[in-house]
Amino acid sequence: MATGAMHAVISLAFLLLDSSARSHRVIQKDSQRRPYVTRNRASARLSRNFFRLPKPKAMETTPIPRSRKTYPAGVYEGSHRWESQGLDVHYLAADGPKTKGEATKTPLLFLPGFGVGSFQYIESVKRASRGRNSYALDWVGQGRSWPSDPTGFQLSADFWVEQAAAFITDVIGGPTYIAGNSLGGFLAAQLAARHPELVKGVILLNATPFWAIRPPKAKSSTGPWSNVWDGVLPAPSSYKSLSSFFFNALRQEDIIKSILEMVYVDKTQAAQELVREILDSAAHPIGEDAYASIAFSPRASLPFADALKAGSRAGVNYLCLYGRDDPWVVPVWGQRAYFHLDIASQERRQEQTRQGIVNASEDHSIRYWEVSPAGHCPHDEVPETIAQVAEGWISSLEGGFGVDTPKLSMTESAIQVVKEDDGRKIRAYPRDDSPPRDVGEWAATALLRRDMEAAREKLGRE
């Protein structure tokens, strides 16, 4: 929400900054640039050799208590770093159970939202490792992943997608399930659309359906946007001054605390330690530069809906798993994501039928579940519930889970209840028609129903 307000104000200032941008391009033209980044090359077109890094080395770690509320800042059990060519990428990893004679389970990778990092996924990684190897990645420019010299970097959605793709290839070593929250869900959809061979399935955790205000590279290289800085660092002083105003206003302890309490149903789960970790991350020496690049970088090459459709048509499995009580990404957004996925899956099935492929899509899973009470970050607010739904879904696709791995049944249509460690009882249920909570949601739901009927009618004609 705060980022959206920032983008709105920034857009009003663009015309005032044109002259500065022109001067900056002249300076950049003669400056020394990194060999793998150029002024006219978008992040989506970066050579993936840029991310071909050595095998990770473990950091020195200190065992931590089970509760996130007592460990020292920056010291995580299972921390690793992936380093090369000025990149310092931090991630968490936990090994799953090793069962003699049983095939290795497909890993699960968690992708964080904006402003946070793997520190918000310590419980998620630990619980997921009851059934399989699990990971959580910090995006470059957030959490504890930072370039030693930011020159030449453009922290865009396309850049992060390629970072995740390279991480799966070089560190995990093969196809994986990915679970992304908020911005992480948006990027997970992009990753599945562009690299379906790396993705076994996607879990969307209250995924934001949009990111960034600048049009994609192909649409912003000409016209008015060509006079606006495109986020390739270093930032012109005028742009950095503008973004720094918002950056420094937002990274106040009371502001971050109030934002978290707004989106967590149980305010006690918005722990002070989480606030501290966010502040520590933002205090990095190039934090302001990273924020400026993020604010002005172009949108992803594919809109969210198109990315979902592309992934679904490629046969990627999806679980839309949404905190019912999110005030930002309200249930109708999750239902719309499910609608795009389901329609694309039916189109895929029709195409296979025309080609004479029998029963090829029977194992294609598109599911929608809600958990309540839970808000925008359900993986952090109700980690046990999310873990059991996720493992139940993956089990339904692959089978072979150990009997001691907690999971919910995907064939049960009634509400199932999970007890969190602190005794809270959370409801989990499959549903794609949750009733609207206010007039705005009612109108959005009415539009969604109209679109669904039109799409299904079109499918019926074909």
Description:
The protein has 15 helices and 11 strands. With 462 residues, it is an alpha/beta fold. It has an 11-stranded mixed beta sheet, sandwiched between helices. Strand 4, helix 3 and strand 5 form a beta-alpha-beta unit. The longest helix has 24 residues. The two termini are 41 Å apart.
Q: What are the salient characteristics of this protein?
A:
462 residues, globular, eleven-stranded mixed sheet, disordered N terminus, alpha/beta, single chain, 15 helices
Our estimate of the beta-strand percent is: 5-15%
How large is the radius of gyration?
22 Å
Q: What about the largest sheet?
A: 11 strands, mixed
Overall pLDDT confidence: 81
| Unreliable runs | 1-75
**Biggest sheet, spatial arrangement of strands:** 1-2-3-5-4-6-7-8-9-11-10
What overall geometry do the principal axes of the alpha carbons give? Answer: globular
Summarize the helix and strand pattern as letters.
HHEEEEHEHEHEHHHHHHEHEHHEEH
Oligomer: single chain
Helix content: 40-55%
- The structure class reads alpha/beta
Number of helical segments? 15
Number of strands: 11
End-to-end span in angstroms? 41 Å
